[in-house]
Amino acid sequence: MPWIILLFAGLLEIVWAVAMKQSAGFTRFWPTALMAVSMLGSFTLLALAMRTLPLGTAYVIWTGIGAVGAFTFGILFLGEALTATRICAAVLIIAGMVTMKMA
């Protein structure tokens, strides 16, 4: 169950990162409100998962889901560049997450 909670915490991290981008520096109300709510939810779920999971593992997985998810969202929906270097970086993040999980 803590892994499922951690997955949802990571997904909410993607939501708050995207909402932060859409808030235009906190000048737009609804994206800013969504960011605050999803951030609170993400941190809460992370804290719940950390009751059982090791700190390092939980944090790496949480940030990795958020980083790769935001990277993917940016490419698919915001027209951000898809380059070999950026793909390599995302693969390395995923490799780090898998390695941390196996450790």
Automatic annotation (TrEMBL):
One of its GO terms (cellular component) is plasma membrane. It comes from the Bacteria. One of its GO terms (molecular function) is transmembrane transporter activity. The chain crosses the membrane at residues 33-50, 57-78, 84-100. The keyword Transmembrane applies. Gene3D superfamilies: 1.10.3730.20. Pfam families: Multi_Drug_Res. One of its GO terms (biological process) is xenobiotic detoxification by transmembrane export across the plasma membrane. Keywords: Cell membrane, Membrane, Transmembrane, Transmembrane helix, Transport. SUPFAM superfamilies: Multidrug resistance efflux transporter EmrE. Its main location: membrane. Belongs to the drug/metabolite transporter (DMT) superfamily. Small multidrug resistance (SMR) (TC 2.A.7.1) family. Gdx/SugE subfamily. PANTHER family: GUANIDINIUM EXPORTER, SMR FAMILY PROTON-DEPENDENT DRUG EFFLUX TRANSPORTER SUGE. This is Guanidinium exporter.
